[in-house]
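the two lines:
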Amino acid sequence: MSGVSVTKGAEDAAPAPGGDLVVLSNVNKHFGALHVLQDIDLTIARGEVVVVIGPSGSGKSTLCRTINRLETIDTGAITIDGKPLPAEGKELARLRADVGMVFQSFNLFAHKTVLENVMLGQLKVRKTDKKAAEDKARSLLDRVGVGTQADKYPSQLSGGQQQRVAIARALAMDPKVMLFDEPTSALDPEMINEVLEVMQQLAREGMTMVVVTHEMGFARSAANRVVFMADGKIVEEATPDQFFSNPRSDRAKDFLSKILHH
Amino acid sequence: MFDFLDGYDLLGAFWVTVKLTVFSALGSLIWGTLLAGMRVSPVPLMRGFATAYVNVVRNIPLTVIIMFASLGLYSTLGIALGSTDIKGINFRLAVLAFVVYTASFVCEAIRSGINTVPVGQAEAARALGLSFTQVLRLIVLPQAFRSVVNPLSNVLIALTKNTTVASAIGVAEASYLMKEMIENEAQLLLISGVFALGFVILTLPTGLILGWVAKKVAVKR
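prediction for all of em together
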């Protein structure tokens, strides 16, 4: 449990109006015999921060990855900003450019410097000119607090710094929504907060976010809504206050009792 | 003691070997990279073609391929590859045969390099909105090449020595001259020794330099 102290301001508590940005309806997916996503219905409004929690193997990472089609789905439909997810190809690439993704294992391009990592998408996908891309990359790196590391290679940075670079890389595309797939799970404990603080800041600025995490402190303070998954199903959806103080389902009670009391 | 070398163009013969090696290396690097790209492509037809190509070509003896180039392509089909004199034609046919053959080994070396690139690298690139060819060209292949410099230098050394097969279709490279000298001179062991040394002089620096390059460009994770 991290000690993130930033609490959600009153103005951030309600989801910003603006309609539905990501809609999953009746989504099913199997990994072989394992029914990893079962009839998932989930709607994420513009500006909303949704935190997905649940035990390991509950399908929460898979859910996150289906939203930009890094995992395909068997049945059901996913729309982003009203448009259904296209099949593999140019259309899909265009859509992915609008969906930022941050991975558990950072996945910074190992043969490129930090600055080049943040510029690449702008240059090759957005076709921004080099000067503008570099200016934007540097200001984003400053914003996440790694501006001084711009010319180093990812392997020379700590995990926390790498993950903040990864966030900057995703932000450089001006995404409509950001997906975080367990962004702090591979980090040393003392580096978790520096990443969570960047995410808190993003949430406060009104970014639409889907965050798969085990950080209950972050869920409490930054989420508009908590989605609890177990065994491939969404078991419970509630505001963080409701969910943590008064979970309705037995599965959630059991889960919370295991993680909150030690 | 080395009088027997008089009257033979030793350097000229090795120069032909070098030219064969360099042209064939460039060609097979390009063609082999394309094949490797096809082998990991999402298009089943391309994957199937490249897989079949590699498995067929690398299992055919080089001599058979080079004889086919000469007897099949040139003598039967009249394909002269844009050259008019027989020396030029044979040289080009030999380069073509070496490219066809060596590319299958280059392809497999690069494919093994592609397998060393963590899948997360490609996922992150796709998540940014890069297309398949961009992911391959900008992210996966640059990292793959860095990890296969050593295996590629093996392929290059093998290619250098394989160029001796070109003598089968009359390309006057080093081993062609060696056969001629062995017929005419008495110092059989010395002649063989001189040519063996010549090849070591060509290939040893290749291995050393590329070994150094491999360390220099290795991707740190």
